[in-house]
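Final report, closing paragraph on structural work. Over the funding period we assembled a curated collection of sequence-structure pairs, and we close with a single example.
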Amino acid sequence: GAAAAPLLLAAVAHAQMDREHEGLADAADALRQQRSLASLRRLRREWAEHCAHEEALFEQHDFAGHRSRGDLAGTASHVKHHRALLASMDAAVQSCEEGAECSRGGCCAPGLVSDESVRRILGELQQHGDVYDAAYVGRLG
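Its predicted structure, as stored:
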């Protein structure tokens, strides 16, 4: 199949979020090029930190009722997508750590993240930026 496309995250007019998005794009690029477990773990770590920081901003600004509206908040699906992507990354890490399966031609060559996993994860990250993060451009302080 085709290689994963580079991650292109648009600026959201919040300095910290833009810096973190750049860091995510760099980590995604490393995963795309290396397909190593280390690069996947780096992306997962940066994603988890970014989600925590972003959700703290939602809380601080009560963006889309994040704090005041609970499950009815406009950010509920955004946060749910954060968790879904983390789960997707965790599953890819786990399948690569189960080395015996990998070396039998399963998820990946020994120590390598499968092309399919890389494409799926980067595609989900791109969708997240395009759909969810676009909603708060210029609206977080």
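The CA atoms of residues 12 and 137 lie 4 Å apart. Helices lie at 15-34, 37-61, 76-97, 99-103, 115-132. We thank the funder for supporting this effort.
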